[in-house]
Amino acid sequence: MNPSKEQVKLLKIALKATSSELQEIRVSRSTQALSVTYAMRKTNELGADNKVAVFGLLTNNMREMLQESSMGWSVSKKKREVFHTRSRFIIAHDAQSSLVAFSMFRFEKEDQCVVLYCYELQVEEAMRGLGIGRSLLTQLESIGLAYGMDKIMLTVLKANQKSVKFYKSAGFRLDSSDPSRFGDCRQDYEILCKWLPRPTASSLTRLEVA
Ligand SMILES: CC(C)(COP(=O)(O)OP(=O)(O)OC[C@H]1O[C@@H](n2cnc3c(N)ncnc32)[C@H](O)[C@@H]1OP(=O)(O)O)[C@@H](O)C(=O)NCCC(=O)NCCS
């Protein structure tokens, strides 16, 4: 089944949104008096230094875990995925302008839904447990909500138990597309989602969908 005409219209609007439009919408949860600043970027707005820092953080956090999983680790494949033209980033820098965390997401169609798919959520090890991950999730939710997406989706390795716990405590649950829904419990990953409230008439008017 496909998304409705209205959902497709919402997706088109989201895909066209500029980074500054997204920047205005997102609601940032305070991060325990940390001087962390968040900025929205598309792949072509990241700049070479941010690209190196993003891929470095991803490598530090995920290479080993992915190497041991069915997903594997290939630098070229991962770079293609991360720096895809439709990827959008929330990048978080500390007071010294070092990248401490980022999220990469895309607006996509999934079955009969339009979704904000969170491909990456990465916090530097020394900066974990301070609320940065939760703040990034809150920002993703406010963007998804403002653009009328049906839900936030993500894939997480079952072995990444800390992250599974983190997402579940933030309200994520197994998605209807998770392999276990079709009786396949052997996969080493889970597909999670968090449904977003339906857009109100006034938000649809703002997006010029009504
Ligand atoms: C998962 C990750 C993004 C969480 O980010 P974080 O900044 O450390 O998380 P926060 O400090 O925002 O914690 C948010 C909540 O989760 C809880 N939490 C954080 N780490 C936790 C852990 N290891 N176990 C249980 N709960 C945890 C916190 O207590 C907090 O709860 P609260 O809001 O009720 O106080 C971060 O640990 C990370 O980057 N991990 C490595 C990369 C990774 O695996 N990414 C996910 C790939 S799918």
Short description:
The protein has 7 helices and 7 strands; from the N terminus they run H-H-E-H-H-E-E-E-H-E-H-E-E-H. It has helices at 5-16, 19-25, 48-67, 75-82, 132-146, 161-169, 201-206, and strands at residues 37-42, 88-93, 99-110, 113-123, 151-157, 173-174, 189-195.
Describe this structure in words.
The chain has 210 residues and is of the alpha+beta class. It has a single domain, classed as Aminopeptidase. It contains 7 helices and 7 strands, in the order ααβααβββαβαββα. The protein has helices spanning 5-16, 19-25, 48-67, 75-82, 132-146, 161-169, 201-206; strands spanning 37-42, 88-93, 99-110, 113-123, 151-157, 173-174, 189-195. The chain has a 7-stranded mixed β-sheet with strand order 1-2-3-4-5-7-6, with helices on both faces. Helix 5 links the parallel strand 4 and strand 5 (151-157). The longest helix is centred in the N-terminal third of the chain and has 20 residues, at 48-67. The relative contact order is 0.16. Its EC number is 2.3.1.257. Keywords: Acyltransferase, Cytoplasm, Nucleus, Transferase. GO terms for molecular function: histone H2A acetyltransferase activity; histone H4 acetyltransferase activity; protein N-terminal-serine acetyltransferase activity. This is N-alpha-acetyltransferase 40.
